[in-house]
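To fix ideas, we quote verbatim a fold written out as tokens:
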Amino acid sequence: MTTKTRNIIAGILLSALLTATTVTARAQVGYQVTKGTEAGVAAVIAGVSVGVGLGVYFAVRHNHSLTGCAVSGANGLQLQNQGDQQIYALVGDTAGITSGERIRVSGKREKTSDGVPRQFLVEKLNKTYGSCTVASGAR
């Protein structure tokens, strides 16, 4: 989900919340709460809660995919990410990936420690875009 989409969803949720809370309070003498009113209030509270929960989920969730050029490296396949130009060693389900192809893979970025190159745990090959040329920074 892109940042633009997250901002739109957050704006819609904020507008809905502000609209629901802008009713002016008025004192009413002898007003009785009916079962229908209680159900309506409960439904609104549940709807707002679900909306806020989904908004937070989509705002916090990260996109776990990389797109770039796959190349053969010293320790196996590597991917030069077209977004940040970082090079990741591909591990996991790399059976359908061939060197020299521009691809999109989904999975998880592995934690790196000193001396260990960045790794990306491939869970799925999403798309193959065709052949590519690697910039001179890839090793």
In short: Residues 23 and 39 are 18 Å apart (CA to CA). The mean pLDDT is 82. The chain has two domains: 3-60, 65-131. The helical segments are 3-20, 35-60.
